Amino acid sequence: MFNVLSHFLGLFAKVFRLYFFISIRSSVGDTLCMSALFPFVPEDYSIIVVSNRPEVFFNNPYIKKHIDVSFFYNFPLFLRKPVIWFLMNLDHQCILSYRFKSKPANGSRLMSLKDWDLNNKGHLIFAHLHGRKVKLNIFDNGTQISPKIFVDSIELCGVKERYNLPDEFIVAFSTSKTAVTKNKNIDFSRLHDFWTALANEYVVVQLGMLDDPPIPNAVDLRGKTGLREVFSVVSLCNGVVAPEGFPNHVAASLGKSSFVLSTGYTRRKYYAYHGKTKFFSPSEQAVECLPCWKSTDCQFDLACVSIPSAEAMVKEIKKEIRPKLSWKNCS
Known about the structure:
Layout: H1 2-15, E1 18-23, H2 28-34, E2 46-51, E3 63-68, H3 77-88, E4 91-92, E5 95-97, H4 109-119, H5 124-127, H6 153-162, E6 170-172, H7 192-201, E7 204-206, E8 219-220, H8 227-236, E9 239-243, H9 246-253, E10 258-261, E11 277-279, H10 310-320
Parallel strand pairs: 1-2, 1-5, 2-3, 6-7, 6-9, 7-8, 9-10, 10-11
Antiparallel strand pairs: 4-5
Helix pairs in contact: 2-9, 6-8, 7-10
């Protein structure tokens, strides 16, 4: 029954020149990565997006229509579950359910990610395409393309006035990504000297959740901004400093440089964007076992989560962003 319905919907999409991108129960970063594929859809097709992150796609000129997944939660439970399952498992040349395809042998999303990584050299953008039928003419290894976020002038001036932002500043996030494993979190206490040194050179605006560890002397916007406001603040900044994951994707989407505190649970190439990503961690060659989620019994003494000195990291940032930035009001 599923195959019949899937084939019918795929045929419908092909006849009416529709391209469906589906992202359900995905993180913001993963959903955002999907937008990098829109420019590769044939021009005579219209893009329909089904996702649980509508804010990611506001103002996106490539999209014909966005369908919020919350629409399906209005269905009765007996109907809602099969519909959601159906959408998550669709696989056709014109339909992409953008998520990792777990292996039946273990059903583990994490193991599927590691197996894919060990046998491929691509970016996270392409990891979600692994094993799918979708056909896109992408002639790139993943380092030259990036997702896109579109913010307008009303949004930009709105957040600048609302939070009294300076004309120039650096955005910082203080916590590590935990969606895959908590074992690779950088110990925040080890970064105190770095955050202090950074705040001595720049105006630092901290974004994130309310319970994220505070950054000394930063403009504290933790827990105050919605997702679109985060995008606007990053769009106004000079660069982003954060662990790998969501902030790195957002920075690339808005053409900003990101300085990444790499945690070692996966390879750098997953999050690297051409000319926009600087990693503060040991070289890829120095840690042969990546990707990994061990926190003990490590033959490399957890070298993957080691970080350079505060002075060395700030020095690298100063090579790309001039320090001593000034405050000005939005006009």
